[in-house]
Design brief:
- The protein is α+β, with helices and mostly antiparallel strands.
- 41% of the residues lie in helices and 27% in strands.
- It has 4 helices and 8 strands; from the N terminus they run αβαββββαβββα.
- The strands form 2 sheets. It has a 6-stranded antiparallel β-sheet with strand order 2-3-4-5-7-6. The protein has a two-stranded antiparallel ribbon with strand order 1-8.
Length: 170
């Protein structure tokens, strides 16, 4: 009887462990150092979740579209070590705002937010952040990262103020 209960409890514990592992959604193995293959895995995971996405022209990155915003996801994988996906978003200036306004805003954002790096490139504010992974991409983590980027955008709008230097603040 005691052995039977022990085996039953052990079976339930093992089943619960397997069930909790299944909570990560789709998983893709990403090993080696092929950034293009990693981008294909990212694209596959996003499409499996019905998130609009398409390959970038260089085939080593993916554009994903959420809430009217395009985000460039660029996986960087290594044979040994921690892998990452660099996310880049670009924001146009609001009418009447100059590169100087954007540089000032980038400095304010870098000083007040700890979410990534802000810079100015070709007349736009650029925001870059990254998520790390190790040999496996999980769709739930990828989607959560995109949600985190959306939340960071709300923080950007708060720092920019109203009326702000960016179109997203209007």
């Amino acid at each position: 009887m005691v052995l039977h209960r022990f085996l039953l409890i052990l079976g339930v514990a093992i089943f619960a462990g397997c069930a909790s592992m299944a909570g990560y959604g789709d998983v893709r193995s990403v090993t080696g150092s092929d950034d293009g293959a990693a981008a294909a895995a990212v694209l596959d995971l996003l499409r499996a979740r019905d998130i609009p996405a398409e390959p970038a022209s260089d085939a080593r990155s993916v554009f994903v579209y959420r809430g009217g915003m395009a985000t460039l996801l660029s996986p960087i994988v290594q044979s040994d070590g921690l892998d990452r996906i660099v996310a880049t978003r670009s924001y146009a200036p609001a009418p009447g705002h100059s590169d100087e306004d954007l540089h000032l805003l980038a400095g304010q954002l870098n000083e007040s937010l700890n979410v990534g790096v802000f810079s100015v490139d070709e007349g736009a504010l650029v925001f870059q952040s990254q998520m790390t992974f190790f040999d496996r991409l999980q769709s739930d983590e990828l989607v959560a990262f995109l949600g985190w980027l959306d939340a960071a955008e709300l923080a950007i709008v708060r720092v920019d103020g109203r009326p702000g230097a960016l179109l997203i603040s209007q």
